[in-house]
Amino acid sequence: MDLLGGGDGNAPVVPLRALAAALGAAVVLGGAKDTDVSDVIITEPGEAPPSVPRALVLAVGARADAAVDAVTSAGKAGVSAVAVRLDEGASAVPEALRVAAEASGVAVLGIPSGTRWERVETEARRIRHGGPGDPRPVMSGDLFSLAQTVATLSLGVVSIEDNGHRVLAYAGPGDEADELRRQSILGRQCPEPYLALLREWGVYRRARSGGEVVEVEARPDKGVRRRLVIGIGAGGRPLGTIWVQEGSRPLAPNTEQTLRGAARLAAPQLIDHYYEGDATARLLSRSDLAHSLLTGRFNSAALAAHFGIEPSSAAAVVAFDLRERPDGGESGGTSWREARRAEAAEIIAVHAAAGRKNALVAQACGQIYAMLPEPPAAGAGHRADAPDAVDAPLVRWATEVVSALRRHTDTPVQAVVAGTAAGLEDIPAVKLRGHHGLQIMARTPERAVAAHRDLAASLMVRDLVRLLEEHQEIREPALQELVVRDAEQGTQWGESLLRYLDAFGDVSEAARTLNIHPNTLRYRVRKAAALTGLDLDDPEHRLVAMVQLRLGRLPSRQRTDPFPAS
């Protein structure tokens, strides 16, 4: 199976050394000075590869003697190289494989034990398009990445195919693949009797007619498990299909929705596939332009034309943040966090595309933002509705996405429904509201989703506290002295007074939050009032104390969030 899209003598080639460098793999050239590949073929242990010049054979599952046999068979078939997975912790190709490579004249690529086979193909395509040494990373929007996201969300085994039934990308546990998918991935044609059956059932006609998810029942007699399929199309032209096969577990309940979103995201990549363009460059451009729309760095009308959106369209904005785990289990440094965000952005994009045709997702400020444009008429109607009526469906959608992110990334995630921008040019201002809302949400990690309007009071108080921090001349001196006294003497007059005021004078509730006896709290409140001269019967005195004492609650280096979790 030609996974690189080559197949002729003029196809662009990939230097094996460049592929090895990209994968961190060991390489043995088998006597040649260098080796180029233009095709990737997958084989199983004991299976002889087809005779394809300049092919890289992925010897899936071949270890020890089976790997040596794979190299020997590759030499007889006249292919260029064989990739084998190294044992865990190994960094060099075993001696037995070196000997076989020299004897067969075949190069051997030693793939690190933790590297997925899909990544070998993805890196080969990247180098093929960009040339050796191309610094661009493999984009998260690559078809293999999209297939992996669909597999993660659906709990199934996924393949993305073109109209010729060629597998362009696949993902999911290989040991759960049925015979039909196994044959497709290994490069064989789907059995014609089964194709004829699919045509007889009208599966392809229905799948390609307009976004319908079609169920294909299991056929145990043919080694075929239950499947769902959806067509990928653009402008009325069918481009391919996405298949999800049921594995050892039932498919997730929202698999149909996932497939609808994935089909929309796959369409531009398949257009590039048919016109032999560079899908990675196209995706990079779309990502950059979406970021420009989010941050206001480019003319919104021009961006709207590029995305096929009316400039006057309203657009809802939802902000997401992946938090640090409370158990301190984060690891991997900056690169690991970026990879985790990229995975989360892909999941959000699939959910967003399932609901809105022109949905856009971009990362900014370490957070992820979904922009959900609406037709101009619909947008105008929404803005006339009651605020809660506008927010409610978005909160439900964000809650569903956060649940999926927490489940699949094993990471605390929070979201803020920032609101609806009246026009695309207003998106940056709404984005800023989402950013600020996520800062407030950080103090209540157990809370998954909130609408910005529900956080408005907290945001206002935060701004007031920042104003006090910047202008000492408008602070109440007696309250400042109380905070200093607490810091120097280890007392809790200020904190006790603040808890009392926050509880609306409910002594029992405030004492509970401080884990002290109610009489102790009463004494502390009387003492704080005496030390400061505050009249707690005066509402303005109470308001001043509630705002200013928040400023003294944290050391200055932490005052960016004056609302720590209790």
Automatic annotation (TrEMBL):
InterPro entries, A to Z: CdaR-like_regulators (IPR051448), PucR_C-HTH_dom (IPR025736), PucR_C-HTH_sf (IPR042070)
Pfam families documented for this protein: HTH_30
Residues of the PucR C-terminal helix-turn-helix domain: 496-550
Gene3D superfamilies with a match to the protein in the record: PucR C-terminal helix-turn-helix domain (1.10.10.2840)
PANTHER family to which the protein is assigned, alphabetical: CARBOHYDRATE DIACID REGULATOR (PTHR33744), CONSERVED PROTEIN (PTHR33744:SF17)
Protein name as annotated: Helix-turn-helix domain-containing protein
Organism the protein comes from: Streptomyces hintoniae
